[in-house]
Every structure is written in structure tokens, then in C-alpha cells.
């Protein structure tokens, strides 16, 4: 019985010693770099008659990881910038704003580069599905309000080129 009491006391003492928090420790904060815009191309938005609406610098998301990440974790984006998502085929698409900190206008373009639909003023952090409504192959994200400011309409076109 004494042996059990000694073992119990040793276990209790050890657990108390190892469970006490050292008040001299400090929490370490991990600093991460802000994600900044990287110009990978230029896009020109055009009226059906060929008149230029606007030319902007674009980042290009053309692989699974880039398309899944998109503009997540960005604190801001200039009005003359956007992100162009490129898919291999035309299909119904849907985006959402998880981990996206800036409000966006999302413009869906068909395989012939014609705008087929919009999701305007998509709200930060909202996980509601924002569907294309029509099949799309190219999707352009720009700051919220710019689609109206630039008078972009269904039927307008996008032309883009990569830069090296």
C-alpha cells in the first residue's frame, strides 16, 4: 500500500511540475509578407465595335493552385489592375470570396472573349456562390464599382496578352 502511495505521489508531483506554465515565456508572432501585385500581362476591354473601354495590367491565374487562391489575402489592388482567370474550356463557373479582403466585380467571358455575365460588388469574406449563369472560359476580377464606372456591358470583349 505504501508503494502505491509513493508512486501516486510521484506521478502527481510530476504532472504538477510539467503542467505549470512558465510565466516568462512570450508568444511568438509570425510575420508574413504582404502579397503584392505582379504584372503578368495586359488586358484591353473593348466595345463590340472595337472601341477601347479600358486597358489594365493583369495577373494571370491559369493553373489549379492560382485559380483556387486568386486574390485571397490581398489587402488592396489598384484600379488599373485585375486578375484574369484562364480555363482550358468553356463551362459554367462559380466563384466565392473566402479569404478575400477586397470587394470585387467579377466579369465572366465566353470562349470567344465576349462578356456573358457579371457579379458586381462581391463582398469580402462572403462564401456565397457567385455563378456565371452562362458558360465562361475567362474571368476578370477588378475592384468593385469599376464595371459600372467603365460602362462594361454584356457583349463587350476582352483581349489580353502575356508579358515575359
Question: Can you describe this structure?
Answer:
With 164 residues, the protein is an alpha+beta fold. It has a single domain (33-162), classed as Jelly Rolls. It is 17% helix and 40% strand. It has helices at residues 2-19, 64-69, 146-149, and strands at 41-46, 52-61, 81-95, 104-109, 115-122, 130-143, 157-162. α2 (64-69) links the parallel β2 and β3 (81-95). The longest helix has 18 residues, at 2-19. The radius of gyration is 26 Å and the shape is globular. It starts with a helix and ends with a strand. The model has no long low-confidence stretch (mean pLDDT 88).
Structural class: alpha+beta
CATH-level-2 architecture: Sandwich
What is the overall shape? globular
Cα-atom Rg, whole angstroms? 26 Å
CATH topology: Jelly Rolls
Distance between the termini: 80 Å
Total domain count:
1
Mean pLDDT: 88
- Contiguous low-pLDDT stretches (5 residues minimum) are none
Biggest sheet character: 7 strands, mixed
Number of strands: 7
Percent in helix: 10-25%
Helix tally?
A: 3
What is the assigned CATH homologous superfamily?
A: Protein of unknown function DUF192
Strand order of the largest sheet: 5-4-6-3-2-1-7
Binned strand content: 35-45%
